[in-house]
Specification:
heterodimer, A: mainly alpha, MetI-like fold, 2 domains, two-stranded antiparallel ribbon, two-stranded antiparallel sheet, B: alpha/beta, Rossmann fold, four-stranded antiparallel sheet, 10 helices, 10 strands, globular
Chain lengths: 605, 307
């Protein structure tokens, strides 16, 4: 009953007039909110204006004065956010289709899986000409190509996460939605999106972090003879590295740190704090997320504004419009039904039972899909024959297995190092409160900005690039493992740990019987993401340049990079295809079974 | 699950005999005729959840579906609600075959099924969004049902801040808000503590007696015998594997303010229902079918006594 009292108190408090100093605070908050929105809008307009300049004005030699860094940073952030918006739109549409259309679901997931494994350079070389043709003589073509490249590095895990949320909606919620006759749109807005909000937001953060890693590759576009340098912090680093400008690289690293922390403060902190309301269950152990910016927004008159707008829908003219809309929608629906009925009547179909119809559709669909796959394979086989590239194909597969070995070794080594650390951090709430945001920031920092320094270290110590590239890949992807292990370890219930202590279990036994099984699920998720990231990162990490020093490891990533530089489209295609095959095979044969095992045996619920 | 095949056949043979009564019950709000539901699992094994069940929910009555967990009670309720389509048989509302969720019915769920991100009043309004009402009309209607279930003052709180009993009150208000003729309740009080559940039972009976929001009939699924005796005018006892109606018991006890299940006659009825339930469980299939046949006999004297 005390709970009821509490909420009553809150209701009455809202009615009281606030004292004067609170009113002043609220007005100050209003000004802050307006300033925030206004400056964001102004920045967007400015950046879009600059992006739409004619192509001829695009300077191939980027101005690397340090004073230009803030401007470049803004350009890069805008690109990143525009790509994020497109990623969100794609996610909402495709994720819903995959979850709601029975027959389309599996093929869509398969296609997403394939696309996810294609490295970013593959997308760039395949689509650059299309973008350039869409916006002739404008920088927008190049900008679009860059945004698209960033988009392809962000979107897939978001879509997968949204799809997973949609199919894991509680059954009773689903029943309630149908019982109360929610329309498809209401259901989407009221149930689907809120239910998916928290995981989707976390994946957005991870995606943006992943996107920074490929920023240089997206902004310094060189495909064969075409090379473009877009103003941005990624290209700034790229150019500084080519010019052996150590100060520039250091300044860019500093700017990048500011960007990562700033975005976290201005964008992610408020969003995650706001999204807390969308959690299905309130767990006491979860730390309370707060954000000063969100508090300011709550202080302002935004809620009153929203109420006012909502009250506008009661105006007679709006009601009339709505009635018209309802009537016309009903009429349209009736007409469509009539049309379908007429069509059915016209086509004198033999009477087939629903089950048989389903089977026929299945067969037709399977035939279609099979033909498509066979067609692509045949076309590619012809291309191999035409280029007389049998030996090269074999060599590429060999390179692929080298990179595969590297990725696997990386996953194992990172797990060995980070599981004990992660468990230690996760099991102590005090430590994880400090460490988790740091790890999260580390994960979003683009590791390739540090490559020049690591490269010099390799040169000085004569470290073989075969091992070195492994280290470079790990620099970016290890955080996924650590992050997930921390999250998993912090979710081990206290009573289970107390039980282990009460039964006088040894440390070894506790690890074997409780901790390792309990973090298995999160570890699989983390290791899967890390391995996937490592495959993509191999393109950047196996051939590293500083000035005119280039270190190359034998591997598929280096092969694709070199082929792109030389503009050898066939080789790029071959490399991308082999990499896709490898990733798909490993996903299907290793990670999916592990995920299934984790969800069937090792869930803490 | 392995069923003895001969028993299954016997159940299947019984089906046509029951489906021969052609005219629908006149005063039935929802009527299910010869409903069967079977699922096929990944290995291709068939699992019969409900077998040849005919149920009618008439106007102005409370019916309880009583059975063990796994007896297919919830499946039956969802078939009657139009949420799942039966493998065999058909559901009718007002004499029309039902396709899709029933229009004049609302449901109350065991786990409440509230949207945690909406306030109480927004949760209650969710079923009204399709109706062509202005915001103020919607709000007024939601407010009136919120008052009716005793949640006044909690309109702006979130479900997380409420206790289980409060949450189920919200679920009840949400169902009443759409002005349903039939209220379908899926084990609505089994997640609550004894005292709260008792309060809510009394509340539902009161709302039904007052015909609040045009509420005509209630169909409640439960495994609690006393709950069934307290609330229902008719009790359908479901036997498990496969789910089928073992017996139907009319309750002719007076509705006074007190709990009917605690009167002497009520206790006798509880004992008899308990015997019927456990009998159906402890013996094998053949025995339970015999029990179905012999169950009509002792029912008469009992109900006479209760009169």
């Amino acid at each position: 009953m005390t709970r009821v009292d509490a909420c009553q108190i809150r209701v009455t408090r809202g009615v009281h007039l606030l004292p004067a100093h609170k009113q002043v605070m609220r007005i100050a908050a209003d000004i802050a909110v307006v300033a925030l929105i206004g400056s964001s809008a102004a920045m967007l307009v400015w950046m879009l204006h600059d992006a739409a300049q004619p192509l001829a004005t695009l300077n191939p030699n980027l101005d690397v004065r340090l004073g230009m860094l803030p401007y470049y940073a803004m350009r890069s952030i805008t690109r990143m956010l525009v790509a994020l918006v497109y990623s969100l739109i794609f996610t909402l549409i495709v994720g819903t289709m995959a979850a709601r259309c029975k027959r389309l679901g599996r093929p869509i997931l398969l296609i997403l899986d394939v696309l996810q494994s294609v490295p970013i350079l593959g997308f760039l070389s395949a689509t650059l000409t299309v973008w350039m043709a869409l916006f002739p003589n404008s920088q927008l073509g190049v900008e679009c190509a860059a945004v698209f490249a960033i988009f392809t590095s962000q979107v897939w895990n978001m879509t997968f996460s949204f799809h997973r949320s949609l199919i894991s909606e509680p059954a009773e919620l689903n029943d309630a939605a149908r019982m109360f006759h929610l329309s498809a749109w209401q259901r989407f807005v009221r149930i689907d999106i809120p239910h998916a909000m928290v995981p989707l937001l976390w994946n957005c953060m991870m995606s943006v972090g992943g996107g920074w890693f490929f920023l240089t590759a997206s902004e310094l576009i060189s495909v064969g003879n075409d090379s473009y340098t877009l103003p941005g912090i990624g290209s700034f680093v790229g150019v500084c590295i080519a010019q052996r400008n150590m100060v520039g690289v250091l300044a860019a690293i500093g700017a990048m740190a500011v960007i990562v922390i700033g975005l976290d403060l201005v964008l992610w902190k408020p969003l995650t704090a706001w999204a807390e309301r969308f959690r299905m269950t309130a767990t006491a152990s979860a730390p309370v997320r707060s954000s000063c910016i969100l508090n300011v927004i709550h202080q302002s008159h935004l809620t009153e504004l929203k109420q006012l707008l909502l009250r506008m829908t009661d105006l007679p003219c709006v009601m009339k419009l709505r009635q018209h809309w309802c009537v016309s929608r009903a009429t349209l629906h009736r007409m469509l039904q009539q049309l379908v009925r007429n069509c059915k009547a016209c086509l004198v179909l033999p009477h087939i039972s629903a089950a048989a119809r389903k089977r026929i559709a299945d067969v037709l669909f399977a035939t279609f899909a099979g033909t498509t796959i066979a067609g692509v394979m045949a076309w590619f086989g012809m291309a191999v024959v035409e280029h007389q590239a049998f030996e090269e194909s074999v060599r590429v597969v060999e390179l692929g297995s080298l990179t595969f070995a590297r990725v696997m070794l990386l996953t194992v080594l990172c797990s060995i190092i980070w599981i004990p650390v992660g468990v230690h951090i996760g099991m102590s709430p005090k430590l994880s409160r400090i460490a988790q945001p740091i790890v999260q920031l580390m994960a979003s920092f683009p590791a390739n900005f540090l490559f020049p320094f690591v490269l010099m270290w390799f040169l000085a110590w004569h470290i073989n690039m075969g091992w070195g590239s492994l280290f470079l890949m790990a620099l970016g992807t290890q955080w996924y493992i650590l992050f997930n292990v921390i999250a998993g370890a912090s979710q081990i219930p206290d009573d289970l740990r107390e039980m282990m202590t009460a039964l006088h279990c040894s440390r070894f036994q506790t690890w074997r019987k409780l901790i390792l099984p309990a973090i298995f699920g999160p570890w699989v998720t983390g290791a899967f993401t890390a391995a996937g990231g490592a495959w993509n990162a191999s393109v950047v990490s196996e051939a590293v340049t500083y000035g005119n020093t280039t270190m190359t490891a034998r591997g598929l990533g280096a092969f694709i990079t070199q082929a792109t530089d030389q503009g050898d489209r066939f080789s790029v295609l071959l490399g991308v295809l082999v990499m896709t095959m490898f990733v798909l095979a490993v996903n299907q044969m290793l990670w999916r079974p592990l995920e299934r095992l984790a969800s069937s045996r090792y869930t803490l619920r | 699950m392995n069923f003895a095949p001969p028993n299954l056949e016997r159940v299947a043979l019984a089906a046509p005999a029951m489906s021969e009564s052609p005219e629908l019950q006149r005063d039935a709000l929802i009527e299910g005729r010869c409903l069967s539901k079977q699922y096929t699992n990944d290995r291709g094994q068939k699992h019969v959840v409900c077998s040849n069940i005919s149920v009618a929910l008439r106007k102005r009555e409370i019916v309880a579906l009583l059975g063990h967990s796994g007896a297919g009670k919830s499946t039956l309720l969802r078939m009657l609600a139009g949420l799942i389509t039966p493998t065999d048989g058909q559901v009718f509302t007002h004499g029309q075959p039902l396709t899709g969720p029933a229009p004049d019915a609302a449901m109350v769920f065991q786990s409440f099924a509230l949207l945690p991100w909406l306030t109480v009043i927004d949760n209650v309004q969710i079923g009204l969004e399709r109706a062509n009402l202005t915001r103020s009309e919607r709000k007024a209607r939601a407010q009136s049902v919120i008052d009716a279930v005793g949640l006044h003052g909690c309109e702006q709180s979130f479900p997380k801040q409420l206790s289980g009993g409060m949450c189920q009150r919200v679920g009840l208000a949400r169902a009443l808000a759409v002005r349903p003729q039939a209220l379908l309740m899926d084990e609505p009080f089994s997640a609550l503590d004894v005292q709260t559940a008792q309060q809510l039972r009394t509340l539902v009976i009161e709302l039904w007696q007052q015909q609040r929001e045009g509420l005509s009939s209630v169909l409640i699924v439960t495994h609690n015998i006393e709950e069934a005796v307290q609330m229902a005018d008719r009790i359908l006892v479901l036997g498990s594997t496969p789910g089928r109606i073992v017996s139907e018991v009319a309750v002719h006890l007076l509705r006074t303010g007190a709990n009917r299940a605690h009167t002497e006659e009520g206790q006798r009825l509880v004992r008899r229902l308990y015997a019927s339930l456990t009998g159906a469980l402890s013996t094998d299939e053949a025995c339970s079918i015999r029990l179905t046949e012999s169950n009509d006999e002792p029912q008469k004297p009992d109900s006479e006594q209760e009169n």
